[in-house]
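Reviewers of the previous submission asked for a worked example of the structure-prediction workflow described in the proposal, so we include one complete record here. The input consisted solely of the amino acid sequence. No template or homolog information was supplied to the procedure at any stage.
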Amino acid sequence: METVQTLVRELVILAILAVLLELLLPESDMRRYVRMVLGLLVIVSVLQAVTGYWGNPWGMDFEVLSIENEAVRTSSDILRDGKNLWEQNQALVEDHYKTGLAKQIKALTRLNPEIEVTDVDVKIAKGSQGGAFGNIEEIIINIDRAQPGGDELAVSGEVGPAVQPEVADRLKETVADFYNLQAEQVKILYR
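From that input alone, the workflow returned the following C-alpha cells.
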C-alpha cells in the first residue's frame, strides 16, 4: 500500500510540474521536449514503484545507488582528506613557484657573460613566519669555480673562484635590486 501512495504522490507532483512548465513556456517547439522529459520521468517513477513492489525481478543490483555503512564517511574524515589534499597542492605550487623563480634568476645572471651560474636555490616564506606566503627569504647562486676563459685562483692554499669579487658583488646587487631584496639575502657560493 505504501508503494501505491508513493507512486500517486510522485505522479501528482510530476503532473503539477508539467502544468506549471507548460504555462511558463511560450508557444514553441520547446513544449514538445518538456512533455517528453516529463513523460520519461513518469515512466521512471512507475517502473521504480513496480520494481520496488515486486522486489528485483531482473536480478540487477545497482551498487552505485546503495549506501553501505562502510561507504559513509564522517565529516572529520572528509575534512582531514581535504586538508591533506590542500597540503599536497600547496607543496606542488610552492615547488613550481621556486622553480620558476630559479629560472628567472638564472636568465637574469646570463646577462653578465663573465659569470657562469650553475644552479640557483630559492628559499621562500611559508606564510606562518610573519611574512606573507611566497616572499623570497634567500637566494643562493652557485657559480662554477672554473669560469670559461678564466683561470682558477689560489687563495690561502685553496683553489678559489676565477670570478673577480667586484663582478660577483655586482651580480649580487643586480639580483637583489631586481627582486627588491637586501643584498644580504643573496648569497653566492663557488662550486
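The mean pLDDT is 77. We consider this example representative of the routine output the project will generate in years two and three.
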